[in-house]
Amino acid sequence: MTRDRVAGVVGPYSSACANAVSKLAEKYKVPLLVPVASKEDITRQDQKFVFRLSATTEGYANILISMAQKLGKPKTMAIAGGADPEREARNGVATRIWGEETGVPLQVEVTTF
Questions:
Q1: Are residues 86 and 67 in contact, defined by beta-carbon separation less than 8 angstroms?
Q2: Domain that holds residue 44
Q3: Total structural domains in the chain?
Q4: pLDDT tens digit string along 14-42?
Q5: What pTM was estimated for this model as a whole?
Q6: Burial of residue 20, with CB atoms counted within 10 A of its CB: 0-12 exposed, 13-18 middle, 19 or more buried
Q7: Sign of CA dihedral 61, 63, 68, 70
């Protein structure tokens, strides 16, 4: 960041990387735009140079639940997807929120495609 006199950084993709890079952005006072990483902690650390461009994990879960509720009142619901930490976090939050709001069991299946 300092050698090339970077004006700003866009990325990274994963929450783990974004969390690590955010600390460097703060240290060197370089704006960091986080376009995809969804972990809430990335932008809840009182950092002045880190900006989120997408929803948080809980935001994605709320969108999913809202959409499912508009389809009717299912007795069960499942989320299927590939195995990656971002998706697993969203699924965990979705499971918690869905259960709290509806009392309907939510089965999460994580599969590698």
A1: no
A2: 9-52
A3: 2
A4: 888 999 999 999 999 999 999 988 888 88
A5: 0.67
A6: exposed
A7: positive
